[in-house]
Amino acid sequence: MAENETLECITEHERILQEIESTDTACVGPTLRSIYDDQPNAHKRFMEKLDARIRNHDREIEKMCNFHHQGFVDAITELLKVRADAEKLMGQVTDTNRRLQEAGREVTAQTEEVIRCRIQQRNMATTVEKLQLCIPVLEMYSKLKEQLESKRYYAALKTMEQLEKVYIPRVSQYRFCQIMAENLPRLREEIKEISMSDLKDFLESIRKHSDKVGETAMRQAQQHRTFNSAVAKQASMGHYTKPVYSLNGRTHTHTPNGLLMDDDTGDEEEADEEVLTAQDLVDFSPVYRCLHIYTVLGDRETFENYYRKQRKKQARLVLQPQANMHETVEGYRKYFNQIVGFFVVEDHILHATRGLVTRAFTDELWNMALSKIIAVLRTHSSYCDDPDLVLELKNLIVIFADTLQGYGFPVNRLFDLLFEVRDQYNETLLKKWALVFREIFELDNYSPIPVDTEEEYKLVVSRFPFHDAEIEKQDFPKKLPMSQSVPQIYTQVKEFIYASLKFSESLHRSSTEIDDMLRKSTNLLLTRTLSSCLQNLIKKPHIGLTELVQIIINTTHLEQACRYLEEFITNITNVSPETVHTTRLYGLSTFKDARHAAEGEIYTKLNQKIDEFIQLADYEWGMAESDGRASGYLMDLINFLRSTFQVFTHLPGKVAQTACMSACKHLSTSLMQMLLDTELKQISMGAIQQFNLDVIQCELFASSEPVPGFQGDTLQLAFIDLRQLLDLFMVWDWSTYLADYGQPTSKYLRVNPATALALLEKVYRGMKDTSKKNNIFSQFRKNDRDKQKLIETVVKQLRSLVNGMSS
């Protein structure tokens, strides 16, 4: 057992020694530690083993040294021999090196020069290479400066873009490139500001010169319309010629010719061949340039919003009229020119640019403008009282509408406005013709037209459609029944129709509509203007009976001429009067109304004249006996009536008869009122007799047929009330009156009891007053007691009759 352990220990120590010999000294520590970790006193045995191993190695070293010692001695001997040769060689090498150093010093200097030149050459090549990279950048920047100086901003922006994306990145390490890169944003802002300034100048320029653009566009539209009319006429005749003018308001060419403000259009041929458009009059390049610049800068929306906002402001300024625009046609023309110029420019911008303005934007502007235009025209046209100015305004509106319609703007509301302007035009015409009619009536002599020769007769007939076989058979000189105002009025009515027709031209209306407008306006002239003038004329105080008679004759002839006015309108419009919706002229009713008014005025003036004569009556109501002849005032009145009714021979029979009957009735009524006047307290029988003589003259006048056409004693019946009343007093036939009262066959059927009572009381008071003055009342009572009792009895009976009627 002990022997086995000893063998294992020896084997272990052998392994450790081998490991120490083969292992690096740095790793010996763990190996040695394992010796102390084994059995106790194991290290002593190991030390012993180690000493034995060391002794073995010493013996081997000694054997090796003994084996190589002779060779070492021989090597030392040889080395000593070589030492002398080495020192000799060292001297030779040192000498050779000295001589080589002296010989290479010049070569070294030349070599250093070569090296320095090579470095310079390399630096120069590098510099050239870098400069070749920098020169394009500098050239582009120089080009940018030139473009900015020449105001080629769009090209400058493109150059900046190339500099930023292509050139500067290649040499971005250099300071000057950094400075360039820092300047580019500032240059962009400058370009932006400059282009915006140019745009503002452009907007200001077109605001000032839009009237020139509008004037040119409206002139071209008018020439285009005139040319179309001419072509239509030539086509109807089978001919056609090439158009000279064209409404070329829409174009896509971008040739900026600048603003042409001279009014010299050159020769007529050149003016005919050359058609100026918006871009011929306005330089649009600032808009295009600014649009492109803002597009490149990515700020197009800002530009569009600014442009639209400014144009809206300008639209409001353009639509604001001058305060005195309605005074002259030039004011309206300038107003329309500015508006047309504005929208022609907008239409060009719409089609020449993409999206700067849209159709919706222009439509919005136009709708806003159209409402404002209509309101302005409606207001200002209402101030205009000159029909010529209104007609010129209408022509301007038509050209204005046609011009903008050619550019695609809806103008139906403008043509609707023309109907309102037409009403205003008709009103001004009516006012003008009212003055014309008044002047004609004032200058008329209200006497038949004398014609001394055939030429004079034809002249009158050419102006007025007069046909009368009897008058044509008469020899010259002769007189036509109407006065000078009749042909003048007829002519002026035709002139009015012509004037009204002028407004209907170019309204794009059918012949039927034009015919209807003419007839309605003519009806207004007849029923309102002429009728009013006639009514005012008839009411004038200086118009006497003779003038009124002539007015009735005149209106009769004018009424007969109405059918010729119908034919006149038909010939103008070529619309048959048998058309279903054709309006008829109301001249017949107009002249009938005027004639009836004149007739009524005749009756009134006759009665006024009769009243004037009646006021001259100076009866002596207390006279004892009559003068035996009629009163002077009454004879004068009858003579006046005779001469007046002789003038009535030209009047229609019924008018003269009515006037005569009215005069007699009024005279009878006035005489009756004179007898029954409450201020007249007493009447003598002599005054009754005198009054009876006057009434007899009135009856004689009525029976003499002052106006033909009365049947029997019809005219005398106007005095029947007076006659029966006077007969009752003259005959003193009270018994018959009272006995037959109320009977249809009564002799005094027309005598009212109240009338008889009033007059009887006045006669009774007159009889008593006469008796007192003559101081024979007592004798009267003795001689006429029965008559007094009769009067008292009659009075009582009459009062009872009156009371019975009132109850």
UniProtKB/TrEMBL annotation:
Domain Exocyst complex component EXOC6/Sec15 N-terminal residue range list: 49-218
InterPro entries reported in the protein's UniProt record: EXOC6/Sec15, EXOC6/Sec15_C, EXOC6/Sec15_C_dom1, EXOC6_Sec15_N, EXOC6PINT-1/Sec15/Tip20_C_dom2
GO biological process, one term: intracellular protein transport
Keyword Transcription: no
A GO CC annotation given for this chain: plasma membrane
Top-level taxonomic group: Eukaryota
UniProt-listed Pfam families: EXOC6_Sec15_N, Sec15_C
Record keyword Transferase present: no
Ranges for domain Exocyst complex subunit EXOC6/Sec15 C-terminal: 414-762
Keyword annotations: Exocytosis, Transport
Its biological purpose: Component of the exocyst complex involved in the docking of exocytic vesicles with fusion sites on the plasma membrane.
Family the UniProt entry places it in: Belongs to the SEC15 family.
Annotated protein name in UniProt: Exocyst complex component
